[in-house]
């Protein structure tokens, strides 16, 4: 019998589900608005404000406060009949001030009643069409009432008459909430499944407020509950006041978003929630680390929000989805402690990757008085799920263990589970709760691996191809690289032209081509194999890079088919092939584009490594920058929404591996990566990135160390008895461990080439000349 129940519908689980779903009626709370839809629009609004240029200018913010206090509130008060506000939406600047002001319900109510004798509410708008109608209608009425005041905030006008703020309370609220969006900017926050679960948990916290009102001084909401609470407060102040009228005093004991949190309040909140629902209070995507002035802890990798996918048309690239996973354990007390229990442990495994991964937790270390967060991971949805194995250590000189039982938590089951949480437990020892966030699109991961030499048509140089073409000579020599995605699928073929001439099974010696003919091309799709690993590259060419002129001294220039021109320079005084590199990327199709894109040497911005985990001690330590920055380049785009720049791609030209946000063009990033390596090799006269390798190297078997498929959070996960593989960390923390192939270091693989492929002399002349 399995030591952990494989049945999803255990009695304990059903009880938890029924209790959590029944608190709506038991708490006696009714919501007069759709909080799920409102929360989603709330997040979109916060993001729109944070990306507005005026948001970063104190003078225009002061204008917005004046417009709200002197113009908007008298305007909307006159049009409000009773407690029903008109269906009007003010311009963005006034919306933002109104939003911040209403996040302090007691002050906002006092302000409204003292000035207008009533509480001013907001209209219930849940779709873009109604919002556009309300905005246009508001503009018409505004222009009639204030003909000399523009409806939209004019950020470029002289704001000196409005720099003095008379209402300091409103100014304080606006200033306080300036960075509010960044507390809820995680990409899964706006997913409907996450918001539905958050609404249910918000009801749960209100239930705890009423049921245990004499047993706490402050309660601390998690990030998801806090989002729903703030949405309830600011979206519709009048409706919020009516919904929480009976528990308004209790809500004063809930810690706000900017308040510091005491550890004793954290523990009290956890214990009361566990008493009410027999589940851990925190879950994946919902921790209590959101409060106070400190920024929210970022995941150990770049997981940014993207509105568009520039690569959606490239069918060869499979979309990558990522989700956050938390595993909580709680031991079940036993009357008679057995000696065998001391030798038992739980092992965490992932179903479709990392077969050799062994992350253990001794059962004797699992807390019994509360739920303990044991592991926190970020997993690709394609990994399917996780498995908890119950094992018992055996005797003898070998540290072997025996499988006692196992149970699986599948992502598909968790997506359908209430609040995205699933509980299963052993009959005697341990309860386990796994929670996830909804899967959202993650950055693409691509790597280039060596492949066979090809001819001008894209077919591999081989007797097989020659026979198929009735011994018609194969013309030209191209170095080839196959581009694999995160799951090892072929999606592009990159080729570098190095030689001309023909091959007919004789002793013909191809000759190097001119500098301007040594182009780089990218073909979309996978190889068409005709015999084993022999085949032809796809026909569709999606990108090219052409040398502008022969490199002189320490400088090389390339014209890219994307309209960009790349210039690479190398300082003469530099002792390393990359430390002295500088890059300039300019788009020739727009005069303004040269200031919008930059290539920065090293891992910058979101990719900067400020800490890492020691693989021997499994402890986090400060990371000191050293030569590990060598080979990395960060692509940064500057836009009106991101005037300080946003990293959209990271590439390592030594290992030919890239990570890019969906909004970034994969073809451009691959061209940059290959042309940088090609230029550095020519300038330094060294084969730094193994460009001379002309064989298909052996790749790791699928499932053994799939890169990027699982990332173990370094500060939460407990790994008391196991070695943490570098493959459970972001690839750019240790790129060599991820990408280096053992075959590259074998001399026979670099020198033992057939006459058809050509000798080293040709390629050295074309690559290192």
From TrEMBL:
A Pfam family reported for this protein in Swiss-Prot or TrEMBL: GRDP_C
InterPro entries assigned: GRDP-like, GRDP_C
Residues in GRPD C-terminal domain copies: 483-659
Coiled coil stretches, renumbered: none
Record-given protein name: GRPD C-terminal domain-containing protein
Record lineage: Eukaryota, Viridiplantae, Streptophyta, Embryophyta, Tracheophyta
């Amino acid at each position: 019998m399995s030591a952990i129940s494989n049945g999803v519908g255990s009695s304990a689980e059903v009880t938890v589900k029924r209790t959590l779903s029944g608190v709506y009626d038991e708490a006696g709370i009714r919501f007069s608005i759709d909080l799920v839809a409102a929360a989603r629009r709330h997040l979109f609004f916060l993001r729109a404000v944070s990306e507005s240029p005026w948001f970063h200018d104190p003078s225009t913010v002061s204008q917005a406060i004046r417009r709200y206090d002197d113009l908007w509130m008298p305007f909307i008060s006159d049009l409000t009949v009773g407690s029903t506000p008109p269906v009007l939406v003010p311009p963005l600047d006034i919306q933002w001030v109104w939003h911040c002001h209403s996040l302090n319900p007691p002050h906002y109510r006092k302000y409204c009643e003292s000035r207008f004798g009533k509480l001013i509410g907001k209209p219930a708008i849940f779709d873009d069409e109604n919002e556009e109608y309300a905005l246009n209608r508001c503009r018409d009425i505004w222009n009639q009432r204030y003909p000399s005041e523009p409806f939209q905030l004019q950020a470029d006008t002289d704001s000196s008459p409005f720099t003095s703020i008379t209402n300091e309370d409103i100014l304080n609220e606006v200033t306080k909430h300036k960075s509010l969006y960044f507390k809820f900017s995680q990409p899964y926050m706006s997913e409907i499944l996450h918001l539905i679960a958050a609404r249910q948990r918000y009801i749960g916290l209100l239930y705890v407020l009423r049921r245990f009102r004499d047993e706490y001084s402050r309660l601390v909401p998690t990030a998801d509950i806090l989002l729903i609470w703030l949405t309830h407060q600011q979206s519709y102040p009048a409706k919020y006041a009516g919904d929480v009228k009976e528990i308004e005093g209790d809500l004063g004991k809930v810690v706000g978003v900017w308040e510091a949190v005491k550890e004793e309040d954290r523990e009290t909140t956890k214990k009361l929630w566990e008493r009410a629902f027999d589940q851990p209070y925190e879950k994946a995507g919902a921790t209590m680390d959101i409060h106070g002035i400190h920024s929210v802890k970022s995941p150990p990798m770049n997981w940014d929000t993207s509105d568009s996918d520039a690569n959606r048309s490239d069918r060869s690239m499979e979309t990558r989805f990522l989700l956050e996973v938390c595993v909580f354990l709680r031991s079940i007390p036993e009357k008679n402690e057995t000696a065998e229990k001391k030798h038992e442990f739980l092992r965490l495994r992932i179903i479709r990757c990392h077969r050799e991964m062994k992350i253990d937790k001794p059962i004797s270390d699992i807390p019994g008085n509360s739920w303990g967060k044991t592991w926190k991971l970020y997993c690709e949805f394609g990994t399917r799920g996780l498995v908890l194995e119950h094992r018992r250590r055996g005797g003898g000189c070998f540290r072997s263990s025996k499988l006692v039982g196992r149970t699986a938590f599948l992502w598909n089951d968790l997506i359908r589970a209430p609040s995205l949480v699933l509980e299963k437990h052993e009959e005697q020892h341990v309860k386990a709760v796994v929670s996830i966030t909804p899967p959202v699109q993650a950055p693409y991961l691509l790597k280039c691996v060596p492949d066979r030499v090809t001819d001008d048509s894209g077919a591999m140089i081989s007797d097989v191809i020659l026979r198929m073409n009735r011994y018609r000579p194969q013309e030209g020599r191209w170095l080839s690289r196959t581009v694999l995605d995160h799951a090892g699928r072929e999606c592009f073929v990159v080729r570098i032209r190095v030689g001309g001439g023909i091959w007919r099974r004789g002793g013909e010696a191809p000759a190097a081509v001119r500098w301007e003919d040594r182009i780089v091309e990218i073909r979309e799709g996978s190889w068409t194999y005709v015999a084993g690993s022999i085949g032809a590259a796809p026909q569709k060419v999606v990108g090219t890079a052409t040398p502008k002129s022969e490199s002189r001294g320490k400088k090389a220039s390339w014209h890219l088919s994307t309209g960009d021109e790349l210039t690479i320079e190398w300082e003469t005084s530099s002792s390393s092939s990359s430390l002295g590199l500088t890059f300039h990327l300019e788009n020739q199709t727009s005069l303004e584009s040269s200031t919008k894109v930059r290539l920065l040497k090293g891992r910058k911005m979101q990719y900067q490594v400020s800490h890492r985990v020691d693989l021997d001690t499994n402890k986090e330590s400060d990371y000191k920058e050293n030569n590990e920055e060598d080979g990395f380049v960060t692509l940064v785009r500057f836009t009106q929404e991101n005037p300080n720049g946003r990293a959209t791609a990271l590439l390592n030209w030594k290992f030919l591996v890239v990570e890019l946000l969906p909004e970034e063009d994969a073809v451009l990033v691959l061209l940059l990566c290959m042309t940088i390596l090609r230029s550095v090799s020519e300038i330094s006269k060294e084969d730094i990135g193994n460009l001379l390798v002309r064989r298909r190297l052996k790749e790791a078997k699928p499932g053994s160390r799939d890169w990027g498929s699982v990332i173990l959070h370094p500060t939460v996960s407990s790994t008391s008895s196991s070695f943490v593989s570098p493959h459970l960390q972001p690839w750019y923390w240790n790129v060599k461990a991820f990408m280096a192939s053992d075959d590259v270091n074998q001399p026979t693989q670099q020198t033992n080439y057939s006459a058809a492929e050509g000798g080293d002399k040709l390629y050295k002349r074309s690559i290192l000349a």
